Amino acid sequence: MSDTTISLPIPRMPGVRGRLQDNPVLGHKRVLLAAPRGYCAGVDRAVVAVEKALELYGAPVYVRKQIVHNVHVVSELERQGAIFVDEVDEVPPGAHVVFSAHGVSPAVVNAAADRGLLAIDATCPLVTKVHREAVRFARDDFEILLIGHAGHEEVEGTAGEAPEHVTLVNGPDDVDSIVVKDPEKVVWLSQTTLSVDETMETVRRLRERFPHLQDPPSDDICYATQNRQVAIKKVAEQADLVIVVGSANSSNSVRLVEVALEHGASAAYRVDYASEIKQVWLDGVASVGVTSGASVPEVLVQEVLDDLAGAGYRDVQQVKTAEEDLMFSLPKELRKDITGKQDARALGGRVH
Ligand code: SF4
Question: Whose CA is nearest to atom 7 of ligand 1?
Answer without folding.
Answer: 42
